[in-house]
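Explain this record to help learners:
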Amino acid sequence: MSGPDQLHDTRASYDAVAADYAAQFQDEPVGQPWDRAVLTGFADLVRAAGNGPVADVGCGPGRVTGYLHGLGLDAFGLDLSPRMVEIARRSHPHLRFEVGAMPDPGLPDASLGGIVAWYSTIHVPDELLPATFAGFRRALLPGGHLVMAFQVGDEPLHRTEAFGYPVSLSAWRRRPDRVAELLADAGLEVRVRLVREPETYLGRQEPTPQAYLLARA
């Protein structure tokens, strides 16, 4: 499923679980060592380029946005779920959060020093990824950076339950090399590829390896 129905179901699913999702991560904003390392390296690059604000696209309750702010970035968040945005604003009242959805989250052209897509493109169907990445490229200033995280795999996953709520949530697992090809097609030069093995996180074993890509406009 893709298109308006998929977008509606994803928004409704995250609205339903927003409070429980935020509570799960509230004491561990960025819990994995490699997550922190990748985001810190990204922040260093953005600061060194002096290229302006950073959009956390698919920010959820704002935990990564807040972490980036703590690293000295002018970060703001966008999410398709109004309930997630509401929680993010309450949790981080000093930061800006707005409703916006891929593939067109409404980012002005050549306005950003960086974009973070932290486990958010997993909800973008394959056929919409090229348009999403092209939009990221347009929004970045020359020399701006994109960092992504996503699960590695070949098959999409569809969930009908989360945190005890009925949901309809599709997630696409992807191969890093294929994602890197699509980024290159959009004019984004991949500079870093990192894949780590599954870890135990928040008491649960991750089912797949996790990938990080960093690209430059």
Q: What stands out?
A: The chain has six helices and eleven strands.
